[in-house]
Amino acid sequence: MKSEIEGLVKQLESQNPTPDPTVNLEKVGGCWKLVYSTITSLVSRRTKLGLRDFISLGDFYQNIDIAKGKAVNVIKFDVRGLNLFNGRLTIVASFKKASKSLMNVFRKNYDILLGIFNPDGWLEITYVDDTMRIGRDDKGNIFVLERSEENLI
Hints:
Elements: H1 2-14, H2 25-28, E1 30-37, H3 41-44, E2 55-65, E3 70-79, E4 86-94, H4 100-108, H5 110-117, E5 123-128, E6 132-137, E7 142-147
Antiparallel strand pairs: 1-2, 1-7, 2-3, 3-4, 5-6, 6-7
């Protein structure tokens, strides 16, 4: 199933209607809901206190404010057995766009640059249209998001 989804993602990326999303940032801005990811650390890693046994993670959202250069990531959760106890974890990150040539240099020399600059990580938007966004991070993870009307801020 995972390889089928990744194959479909590659097909979509090859048909990207917005070849350079950083030039068309208005397509990237707004609220997005995560619908698929290859990242496993969010669901498989246990905390030292065993909180995964009690906390159930819900939807993941990302609200991108182009004007402020901020991405607000929201993870909804609830505590199993306590229907009245739920909440959300909000993480605010700043971003700046990198030129295509800079990204190519960075990709080719990632290990060397990592040692020099020690970046927090990067995400390349590989597909975006009016309703869907696909990205790949520096660790090779794929993220598929759909546009959402959720008001998180």
